[in-house]
Design a protein that fits this description.
Layout lengths: L1 H18 L2 H4 L2 H40 L3 H28 L11 E7 L4 H20 L3 E9 L5 E9 L3 H5 L4 E7 L10 E11 L13 E6 L8 H4 L3 E6 L4 E5 L5 H24 L1 H9 L9 E6 L4 E4 L4 E3 L2 H5 L4 H16 L5
Helix pairs in contact: 1-3, 3-4
Length: 356
């Protein structure tokens, strides 16, 4: 374990030296990339320092106890050895997690898509509940939310919602949200008080800004249309909204948030690039697909991951058998405890596949 940590510690120190070189400082792109790598290695470097010190402390105490003749001093040394070995066991578990192959997308912004599923208007209304839940979570983390496309219903639901959450670690925290979300509640229009079950589908993917994906114009079908929903009179007067279909894959993206058709097109192309990156990685990269399977759940949009039961104020995540009875707080963006548990379960699943 110490040797594995030492490799990363050396790399951390090497990058630290690179970061103070004038030619690196003046190269913004290179400096940013190295700074991010330096920050990601810092916890491992700190773990190595602790591991190294504890290991040496144990060796020193074991040498001293062999020559010590005073019984009281021997007892103190044995106690010190015992305590430090216990600390090493805990630190070893922490190190194993730190040494797991990192998800290169973890620190990226995230694109979230919500679609009403089974249940008609009630499903659309639940989609709006989820949209608010994620925006409230973003607010709690001081992340910025930018709406890409919002297709609202007359009763205030959403048939489809697509939005970008910008903030460090946004994908790391929200990547487990992909799948089918099921709600059980009594609709306002239900006179008999019967509980209805509806679903909404959530898709989460990292925003890809730096990838080089060749998108040929002949492979695109581009439609313009008038924006719908809130936005003032302007949006209804001009066909500023953009819908782009990538013909080879059938992937469709829309953007109607910007007033300018040009800006909507730029945003839609950015989203398309992220979707194509995810599509091609999943199709072509076997290691990527393997990593997806080792996560909690598959990330498949058809997988039912969670149930929101309003009469019992109960939320259940079926992947890890997690249940709480404070649904209102959860829907107000208090997601951290569940996300922490999903992260731990994911790490445990990956640790079982690793050889240390």
């Amino acid at each position: 374990m110490l040797d594995k940590l030492k490799t990363y510690k050396d790399k951390y120190e090497q990058i630290g030296k690179e970061l103070i070189k004038p030619e690196v400082v003046t190269d913004n792109k290179k400096y940013k990339k190295l700074s991010q790598e330096y920050s990601s290695l810092e916890p491992i470097a700190e773990c190595y320092d602790k591991f190294f010190k504890l290991t040496n402390d144990v060796k020193l105490a074991e040498q001293m106890v062999k020559t010590e003749t005073d019984q009281e001093m021997q007892d103190m040394l044995y106690e010190e050895i015992k305590e430090n070995k216990q600390k090493l066991e805990v630190l070893t578990d922490e190190a194993k997690v730190l040494l797991l192959p990192p998800d290169v997308n973890d620190d990226k912004n995230v694109i979230v898509e919500i679609r009403g599923g089974a249940g008609g208007e009630e499903a659309s209304l639940f989609g709006m509940v989820l949209f608010r839940m994620y925006t409230r979570y973003a607010e709690r983390n001081r992340w910025k939310v930018e709406i890409i496309d919002l297709n609202e219903t007359e009763l205030g639901g959403v048939k489809e919602a697509s939005f970008l959450i910008k903030g460090n670690g946004a994908y790391r925290r929200l990547k487990y949200e992909s799948g089918v979300h099921r709600v059980q509640r009594v609709p306002e229009t239900e006179s008999q008080g019967r509980i209805h079950t509806s679903t909404a589908t959530v898709a989460v993917l990292p925003e890809q800004e730096d990838v080089d994906i060749d998108i040929e114009e002949k492979d695109l079908k581009i439609d313009t249309y008038r924006s719908s929903g809130a936005g003032g009179q302007h949006v209804n007067k001009t066909e500023s909204a953009i819908r782009i279909t990538h013909l080879p894959t059938g992937i469709v993206v829309s953007c109607q948030d910007e007033r300018s058709q040009i800006k909507n097109r730029e945003r839609a192309m950015s989203v398309l690039k992220s979707k194509l990156y995810d599509f091609y990685q999943t199709q072509a990269d076997e290691e990527y697909a393997k990593n997806r399977r080792t996560q909690v759940g598959t990330g498949d949009r058809s997988e039912r991951i969670r149930t929101y039961n309003y009469p019992q104020s109960r939320l259940t995540d079926h992947r890890i058998n997690y249940t709480i009875y404070n649904l209102d707080m959860f829907l107000d963006g208090d997601l951290d405890d569940l996300i922490d548990n999903l992260t731990l379960a994911d790490q445990k699943a990956k640790l079982e596949e690793q050889q240390f």
